Each structure stands twice: as C-alpha cells, then as structure tokens.
Amino acid sequence: MKKYLIAFSVIALTSTAVTSCSEDFIDTQFFQSKPQEDIKTIEELQSFVFGAYGTMRNESYYGCDFVTIPELRSDAMYSNNRSGYYTTVSNYTMLSNDSYASGPYTAMYTVIAKANIILGTSNNLTWGETVDPANIAEKVKNLKGQAYAIRAQALFDALRLYGQQYSGGTTGIVVPTQYNPAANMARSSVQQTQAQIEADFNNALANLTDNEYQNPSDKTVLNEFSVKALMSRYYLYKGDYAKVRSLVNDVVASGRYSVIPRDSYLTSWTLNNASSNSVFELAVGPIAALSSNSINAKISPTNGYQNMPVKPALVASIPTQDIRSQIFGPSGNTSGTFIKTKYSNSNGEDNIRISRYEEVILNGIEAELNGGSIAKAQEYWELILKNRLADYKDAQGNVVTVANQIQALGVIDMTKLKAERRKELVGEGFRMWDLLRWGGPIPKNATNGNVTANIAIGDNKLAFPIPLAETNVAGTLVTSNPGYDN
Of 214, 289, 291, 471, which has the fewest CB atoms closer than 10 Å, so is most exposed? Predict the structure, then answer.
C-alpha cells in the first residue's frame, strides 16, 4: 500500500477550511511529495478533521458514486447508461484501470491518511481560545474521536467495495493505522479488517462520550450518538444483532432525533443541517457543490444526465396515500421514473445525508426480528408508517384511516422489513449492500431495467477490482481481486 498515501503539507489552515490537503493522489509518487510539517495547534488539527469530511464528499465517494453504484446494482434502480455513465459497472465489465474502481479507492484512502495524521499528532498543542491544559486536552480528545470514527467508516466502506467477503474469498483490504508514506503493506483478512473497524469505533466512543466539546445540534460533525448510528449499520452488516439492538436503543433514548413527519418529508431534503431526522450529514452548500458530478445529476428527472431511473415494481409498490409515492417523477428527455425529491438542488448544494434516523429505526427492526422483541420491531415499524401514510377514501367512499391501514399490514417480518427498507432508503446507497448481506443474488440490470442475470454470492465480480495504480507499484504487497486483468 504505497501509491495512495502521499505526504501532506499543512498549508493555509483555517478553522473553517473544507480541506487543507492536496487531492492529487493518482499521479503523485512519494518521492515527489513535500514532507509533512508537524501540527502544532488545535486550529491546524481542526482543519485536518474538516479536510477529512471534505474528502468524504468527493464525487467518487459520498458525493455521488459510492451512493449511486449500490442502487444501480440492485432491485431498486438501474442505469440507462445515458451519457456513458456506469456502463462498466452495470455490465460487470470493469477492468483494473476503471475510474469507478480507482475513484472511490483513492478517496477512501485519502480519508484514512488524513485520519492517521490526526491520530498521530501530539496531544501537546496550543489553542487560540485558551491556555488551560484540561480544556486543550478535552478538545484534542474530541477531534481525535471524530478521526477514529471517520477512519472506521472509511475502512468499512472500502471493505464492502473491495473486500472478498461476498466474492468467495477471505481477503479484506489494506489497513494502515499510521501515517507512513514509505509503508509497503499487504491486504489484511476480512476478519482482521473488521477487528480494526470495531477498535476504531470503540475508540471514537471513548473519546466522544460526554465530551464537553461535542455539539449534537451540528449534524455535520460526528458526536457520540451519530457514531452509534454508524456503528449500528456496521454491526447490522456483520450480523451482530444484539449489538445493533443496544446501539439503536441508545440513539432512540437520546431523544435527539425523530422520524420526519409526513407533512415535512418532501421538504426535509432541502434542510441543510436542520432536519430532525438527520443524524449525520456532510456539509456541502454552494461553495462545495459538485454540480454535474453530484448525486442530483444522476437521479433527477429534470437536471443533469437523468441516468438512474427507479424500477417500476418499486414505484408500483408504494400506494398513493404514502407520501413516499410523491418523490418520483418522469423525465421529459428519456423514459423511466426518477427521484425528484432527494438531493433536489440542481447545483448539488444539498448536504449529503450519511445517516438518517429512519435508517437507524430500520436497523433496529431487523435486529429485533433476529433474536429480539417482535413487539419492539412492530413499534419501530409503526413509527415510520404513522409518519408516511395518510387517511384516504376507498372505492365505496369509506374513509380508511392510517390505523386501519397499519392493522391491515399485519405484523412485521423480514419480508416486510426488506420491502420497507427498499421504499424508505431508495436512492441513498443501501440496496446492493442489503441484498448482499441477505444472501443475494444481485440483479444484473439492462438499460431498460430488465434483469438479464442474477449474480450469486461468491461470484468474483461482487468485489470491485483493486486499482491498477495500486497493484502495479514495483515491490507492492497488494494483491488483486480474482477475475480482473491485474
């Protein structure tokens, strides 16, 4: 692991910097890099934390591709390959030099590198706000807690995309825990990678819990509860349902979040850092907007490339009295139904929702259905339904209340949970991962949305190729994933 961990310079650091680090990671060799200067102040350390968040917003990572790819390889959405986007991903014809492999890889390991710099920094820093050693120590602890969580999430994301847990192998990813540009590291096993992810999340909680400098009202900065929300996702994917139950209980008991009410659902996506259901989001706004490289440009019916329609079966599964039926719309330029409400800003200025309270509740439902309380699972499910459904009149003119509808749906089970996740989380980057952890298969979708094949768990192509720029470095210890050209 050498190509992607170049050295950084601390340049023009400010407390509001989006990123203070070079992002030219593909073409920069280590010997070309300027040595990193020591971080000496809280302000500089804070800027590196903001820089890590900024890289998570990269168009190849949460800014677009890492969100859209799991949807187009699923039973929820597909790519029509309009304007040439996602053709190799849809067709399972990716090669090791594919930008859809190298882009996320570069961004994820850039995030990890920045986190490692933060975590490797001395605690003996100065701070313009105070000279009190106790306050400085607490602030450093807070920033390093965020860095642990950021690294854990990036490792988890990289493991899902490049690790072999679904493709028939046991090899995970490279797991650098120190900033060392000269390091030549091999890939760890899936199990070893998971151990590091868990250690990082636990260290994040140890640093953030009851920390006086965390601010849960700022949804763009990680805190103990948003970390627990991310952990509930990780442990759900691992199948540790008892851990998920505990984490979801803690987030719910905090009382800091709520399922967005039906009347606010459509507009909630435009509320940057202000929606009651947002647990953690990446700040975007006009300055950092990705414009034609944003999620909006791929999923919107009226802007950008109109590349990713929603499958008709999903649209048909949502009744008109369900507010979620109103998120869809046709395009005037191409066939299909698109998502018009989520990430609706045409310039890509909407903050990127990494964790919503509804996902946490859905995680809790699944965990309760697997060894927990069916009654609690039902309570969680009805909490979502009560905020999505409305009374309506049937063909005979009789009013069918929300309570009547919920009663007719019966008791929650895994089949209903899977359908509910598809309806609630469509377009948010979950569906392929859900199908994988449920045992597959993964549909191979044609450009009209028809399924041409089903990719079974164990197929080599369920792990993305390790980028050629990583495996062609002389003396590298990084091995490629089977089935590709490197």
Answer: 291
- Residue 94: is its pLDDT beyond 50? yes
pTM: 0.93
**Which of 160, 155, 352 has the alpha carbon at shortest distance from 237?**
160
Q: Return d(Cα 461, Cα 104) in angstroms, integer.
A: 16
Per-residue pLDDT, 363: 99
Per residue, the 3-state secondary structure of the chain, as one string, reads CCCCCCCCCCCCCCCCCCCCCCCCCCCCCHHHCCCCCCCCEHHHHHHHHHHHHHHHCCCCCCCCHHHHHHHHCCCCECCCCHHHCCHHHHHCCCCCCCHHHHHHHHHHHHHHHHHHHHHCCCCCCEECCECCHHHHHHHHHHHHHHHHHHHHHHHHHHHHHHCCCCCCCCECCCCCCCCCCCCCCCCCEHHHHHHHHHHHHHHHHHHHCCCCCCCCCCCCCCCHHHHHHHHHHHHHHHCCHHHHHHHHHHHHHHCCCCCCCHHHHHHHCCCCCCCCCEEEEECCHHHHCCHHHCCHHHHCCCCCCCCCCECHHHHHCCCCCCHHHHHEEECCCCCCEEECCCCCCCCCCCCEEEEEHHHHHHHHHHHHHCCCCHHHHHHHHHHHHCCCCCCEECCCCCEECHHHHHHHHCCCCHHHHHHHHHHHHCCCCCHHHHHHHCCCCEEEECCCCCEEEEECCCCHHHCCCCCHHHHCCCCCCCCCCCCCCC
Give pairs for 212-216: CB < 8 Å, separation 24+.
212/138, 213/138, 213/139, 213/142, 214/142, 214/145, 216/254, 216/256
Total Cβ atoms within 10 A of residue 266: 17
**Residues of the chain with pLDDT > 70: what percent?**
93
- For the stretch 413-468, pLDDT in tens is 999 999 999 999 999 999 999 999 999 999 999 999 999 999 999 999 999 999 99
